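=== RUN LOG ===
request id: a7f3
mode: sequence -> structure
chains: 1
length: 165
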Amino acid sequence: MREFTLPSLGAEMDSGKLIEWLIKPGDQVHKGQVVAVVETTKAEIDVEIWFDGVVGELLTAPGETIPVGAVMAKILAPGEPPAARTEAVRKRVSPAARRRAVELGLDLGAIAGTGEAGAVTLADVDAAAARLTVPAPTTPDDRYASMRATIAAAMSKSKREIPHY
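=== RESULT ===
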């Protein structure tokens, strides 16, 4: 098993924000293949992998800022068996509770069931929704904020330091 780390993508780069993975666990990857998109202070850059293998596990989630050299994924050698997985037990949920959870955007895995054999009922979903607090409104996430700040700093410096008549 090899570790895929965030490479330095620029002279002054010390960290990057993972925008998206272009691979998923179980995918075959080859040297030179673009596997992720990372945002630096200046641009969004495609990140290539430097060896062949099979994606074992993605350790970094999109939107996460990580330092250069941090492990982003584990790559299995070709032919290496994947780590043993534990089978997840399917949670019993009534159809009405499932529909209400989807409408409210609730994670059924986080709701404890009180029905027969631990099944999640409509009352359980309603109780979980009542416990939620309404978050304060936030400003929309600007993907390009750091890049725009870098451009603004460079333009301000040019205006200050370069003579203009």
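=== NOTES ===
Helices lie at 95-104, 122-131, 145-161.
The mean pLDDT is 84.
=== END ===
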